[in-house]
Amino acid sequence: xxxxxxxxxxxxxxxxxxxxxxxxxxxxxxxxxxxxxxxxxxxxxxxxxxxxxxxxxxxxxxxxxxxxxxxxxxxxxxxxxxxxxxxxxxxxxxxxxxxxxxxxxxxxxxxxxxxxxxxxxxxxxxxxxxxxxxxxxxxxxxxxxxxxxxxxxxxxxxxx
Length: 160
What we know:
This protein has helices spanning 3-20, 25-32, 45-68, 76-82, 86-111, 115-159. The protein is mainly α and 160 residues long. Helix 3 packs antiparallel against helix 5.
């Protein structure tokens, strides 16, 4: 990525931002690293940005899925799951439902894409992230808080 490519990306995005009422480039870049779109030449900038946003959301979806339904996951995940209380599991389930719905909408968008629909997906994904971000951080905080106590105790029980 060159500085020139990044500046061109920002200029092109600014036009689309104004046209569709999108979040600022800086906001999207902060959460979704959309500056990576400057590495590709494209006539479909919003599609490229949407793909980067979708990739990030998909990663969170898979992580949460591994916590809710641990199949073929690293062993440490089982220790993490044991530390969750009912409220944390409910919070994870709600986040999962929202991200899974976004994933289905993404498939539809891949099949039937227009610039307007891409812009709408970006706006809605940004709003979704703003809504679930705090909950994801709370779950991560709970994992970190319980890591040394519960995970280490389980490790001793398992191996010793």
